[in-house]
Amino acid sequence: MSVTSTCGIGSAVQRVEDDTLLAGRGEFADDLGVAPGTLHMAILRSPHAHARIDRLETTKANAVPGVRTVLGGNDLAKASAPLMAVLRTPMTVRPCAVDRTRYVGEPIAIALSKDRYLAEDAIDLIEVNYSPLPAVMNPLQAMADDTPLLHEGLDHNLVSDRSFTYGRPDEAFSEAEHIVETQITYPRNSCTPLEGYVVHASYDPGKDAFTVRSNFQGPFSLHPVMARSLGVSENRLRLISIPNSGGSFGIKQAIYPMIVLTALAAKLSGSPVSWVEDRLEHLTGASSATNRATSIKAAVQKDGRILALDWDQVDDVGAYLRAPEPASLYRMHGNLAGAYDIPNVKCRNRVVVTNKTPTGLNRGFGGPQHYFALERLVHQIAIELGLDRIDVIKQNLVPAKRFPYKSASGAVLDSGNYEALVEKVLTPQVISDLEERKQKSISAGKLYGIGFAAVVEPSISNMGYITTALTPAQRAKAGSKGGAIASATVSIDPTGSVSVTCDSVPQGQGHETVLIQVVSEILGLSPEFIQVNGELDTQKDAWSIAAGNYSSRFAGAVAGSAALAAERLRERLAQIAASSLNVPPQAVEFVDGNARAVGNPENVVSFQRLAGAAHWSPGSLPSHVQRGLTETAQWSPDELTPPNEEDEINSSLAYGFVFDVCGLEIDPNSGAARIDRYITGHDAGRLLNPLLADGQIYGAFAHAVGASLLEELAYDDDGNFLSGTLGDYLLPTTCEVARPEIIHLETPSPFTPLGAKGLGEGNCMSTPVAIANAAADALGYQDIQLPLTRSRMFEMISRGAGETPPREGSKNQEPYLRAKDGKKGRSVEGHGKTTLSIRPEAAWTMLLNPQTLGAVIPGCRSIHAKTPECFVGTVRIGVGAVRGDFDFEVNLTDMHPPNSIRLSGAGQGALGAGSGEGVLTLEDDCAGGSTLTYRFSVDVNGKVAAVGGRMLDSVARMLAGEFFDALAAEISGAPKRRLSFMQRLLRMIGLKK
Amino acid sequence: MKPAPFDFIAAQDWPEALESIAEYGDEASVIAGGQSLMAMLNMRLAKPSVLIDINSIKPAYEVQRDRDSVRFGAAVRQAALELGGNSADAHPLLSEAIKHVGHVQTRARGTICGSICHADPSSELPLCLVASAGTVELATKYTRREIAAVDFFRGPLTTMRRPDEIMVSVKFPKAQPGQAHAFKEIAERHGDFALASFAAIVSRGKTRLAVGAAADRPVARDWPTDSLSDLQDALNDFAWDLGGNEDHHASARYRRSLVRTVGLETIRAAQQRLNAQESAA
Question: What value of ipTM does the predicted structure carry?
Answer without folding.
Answer: 0.95
